[in-house]
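Today's session is about reading a structure prediction critically. Students often jump straight to the picture, but the first step is always the sequence itself: look for stretches that repeat, for charged clusters, for runs of hydrophobic residues. Only then move on to the predicted structure, which in these notes is written as discrete structure tokens rather than atom positions. Here is the chain we will use throughout the hour.
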Amino acid sequence: MTTKTWMALTVGVLLTLPAFSQIFDDEPLRGEVGSKIQAARVAYITQRLNLTPAESERFWALNNEFEDGQDKIKAKYGANQRLESMSDWEVEQFIEDRLQMEQELLNLKRDYFQRFKQVVSPRKIALFQKADKEFRLELLRRVQEKRNDPNRPYRRPGGGGPRN
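Below is the predicted structure for this chain, in token form.
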């Protein structure tokens, strides 16, 4: 493949990130469970990309900066109401804000793409998106398996203990 093809593929993959991240970004997991999932994600992706220790250290530091930047942009445009209760003018403003947010996220991605290229190859940048998606799908599969396990004690919604 030509360099232009790889660049187009990489940019295309970077642009699809919001679609996959929305599944998990609405309410980030906190505490011990969130830390364990994040550690498993880092280990899985580091192995899949075959990152050297030096690459891994620089890559994950830069990725954390990138994710913090995304979080700040998303927080800046958080909706205060449900769409159903908004007036037409408020909905129109909400849409304009979302478009502005998406533009800011795109600008951030373009900036960080250049920064990531200084740390790892464009191929690894593109493979990161694939590995991250694979990890998230595997995580969902495991959650569904546990949910469907007949030997698992019933837990009430909201974190209550086993039902008597």
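Discussion point for the tutorial: Confidence is low (pLDDT under 50) at residues 3-27.
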